[in-house]
Design brief:
The protein has 356 residues and is α/β, with parallel strands linked by helices.
Amino acid sequence: MDVQQYRQAQKSHQIVNFSVVSLLFLGFFYIFVCNEANVKLLILPSAFQQAQFLTSSNTSHVASFNITNERDELAEVLAETSTNNKTVIIAMVNKAYVEGDKSMLDIFLDGFWLGEDTRSLVDHLLIVAADQTSYDRCKYLRLHCYKLKTDGVDFVGEKLYMSEDFIKMMWRRTLFLSNVLKHGYNFIFTDTDILWLRNPFPNLIQNQSIDIQISVDVFIGKEWSERGQHINTGFYMINSNNKTIALFDSWYAEKDKSKGWKEQDVLVKLMRKGLFQNLGIKARFLDTVYFSGFCQDSRNVKLVSTVHANCCRSISAKVADLTTVIHDWKSFLTANETMPFRWSPHNGCINSWKHR
């Protein structure tokens, strides 16, 4: 090879080396740029990229996070209030029931204090408050409390029997109690115008074979027959199961079809149309000897568990006559057993119907 050929070969070799180096440089530069873009995408995405990111892969995750972390206040308070077999005693109040020199709620709680084997039952009593005042009062008394969501409906003042607001409040109560059943809890519902003078559980059948045990205004001597019963939804015990949940769903579904009817009368109508039988509901109607009221006093003070200020129109009349019942009860507890006992007349409630 002469000198000229050698120089030409060397020059070609340099060109090849330069080309290889250039290609390697471009390759490394491309990789670096791509990686840089990826890093920026991960660290500082644009608004559009953020929106795409959230609306694609993470949408279901965010939804499930909100659901699983949403606080179920009712479930919490039911769990802390219930007995070991998931039974809760429930009463409902509003402002009118917690205010005054001696409020209805105070008298209701006096019954647990003065009754036989009743004080410990307060540990399983849930007060459902229909407004902020009654909720505050409940918390002040250190009871188990739940603030009812009323969707802007005013449940603050006194709701006279069969008034439009009274009927609305009774239906809202029914919807709430349906929700309790759907949470898997059995309950005794009690109006606060009922005095618990003895623990009622021994007089209630304690197994799942009976779906509902409900009080009546007047006992007709047949605890297992639906015919002719004057049921009162102020006191009843119900077990949570598919049948009772279906009962409450069917009951509440009648609300808009029954204008001017209170929920109790609608339940009576459904029962008489055969709803209990169609659902396989086993119902027991409670004898007023044990679960009495002003409509029909218990015939035996030694057996009575509860006294209900039914057949009464106003809170003031109920308070007056229930106070008299407390006096009667105290007299019985301290009296000689040989002395005859009679309930005092319920004059306040009798007179409440004269001023309508």
